[in-house]
Sequence to fold (251 residues):
Amino acid sequence: MSEDPREVIRLSRDWLSVQEVVDSVSSSSCGAISVFIGTTREDQVDGRKVVGLEYEAYESMVQSEFSKLCDDIRARWPSVTHVCVHHRLGWVKVGEASVVMAISSPHRHDGQLAIQHCISQLKATVPIWKKEVYDTQEASWKVNSECSWSPGPDETSSESQNLK
Amino acid sequence: MTAQVIVLYFAKSAELSGLKEEELVAVPTPISSEDLWGLLLQKHPRLVALQGQVVLAVHQQYVAIGDQLVTLADGDEVAVVPPLSGG
Fold:
């Protein structure tokens, strides 16, 4: 594997492979691979059960925002080597992974901090949206509390707030 | 000066406008993001449901709704960006 630092974000309509994401960051110079997997929860909202999520994205801007996110990660933790994120688009049913990300680093401390920052910043800045679909066939667009233009807790929104 | 731009609607804004994209002609430039949002509200009044919970993206940079001026050229993309919910 080349040792030039790599960073990849891939949007996919297919089931995500954790192994593929892990393999794409592994490096003989790294003793740690830190991984985060976001999965679709079967939430209950007002007596309705979530059956799945529908994702869409502003694809060209996902790439540019991800680049900025990686620049930020590398500035904070210069030892971070490779970053890989795979994110679903389209329909994701309960129990499936919506996002898999992996970061490799020589030692685990930086990688563990970087992976937490990576998911928080993705939620704050990368133009992807999800709609919860309920067993009543209703749906509502989620908002991330990390996003600076989400409504505050005391503002009305016709949609529900995602506090995960 | 005016420009012809492509407006992209995502998530809730696509449902409110009924469109994924449309051409907007004779948009004054430079224009404040507030005035640009105002133009979109005129065309699609239901977008008002996003008032205070939306930003625009011009040249793939987020622009808050306010007095920031943006310079548009023919063929530029302007995206309506409701609160993000990736991950």
Residues 39 and 97 of chain A are 4 Å apart (CA to CA). DSSP finds three helices and eleven strands in chain A. The interface with chain B takes residues 38, 55-58, 60-61, 64, 87, 98-99, 119, 122-131, 141-144, 146-147, 149-151, 155, 157-159, 162 of chain A (CB under 8 Å). Confidence is low (pLDDT under 50) at residues 160-164 of chain A.
